Amino acid sequence: MTKSTEGVDDVWNDFHSAVNMTATQIEKWLDTDESKDVGQKSSEGAESVGHHSGRKIVAILHKKKADLSHADIEWMRKVVGYVKRHSAQRPDGDIENTPWRYSLMNWGNDPLKK
């Protein structure tokens, strides 16, 4: 097993735990103004990092584990790390309509979802 495919089962499981939205739910979310308004952008009007990530996550969710590329596996690791870090920064109070939640949803995680 090469370095690039090492721990694929763990990454696969961690990714599918972190991403608790379906590909369809993410696609629908990415079409909203709220999704497009949050996140870090390289320039005014550019797509945010999280919104771009959401599109990549949708593509990965449509793949079988055996069809993952090295780049997919690396992106899955990045998603898991982001969701863990960002989740730890949960603000106090009602989070339903917050940029914090919207950012996580761009990365495939809805913190209100059971």
Automatic annotation (TrEMBL):
InterPro entries: DUF3140. It comes from the Bacteria. It holds the Pfam family DUF3140. Residues 31-53 are annotated as: Disordered. This is DNA-binding protein. It comes from Conyzicola lurida.
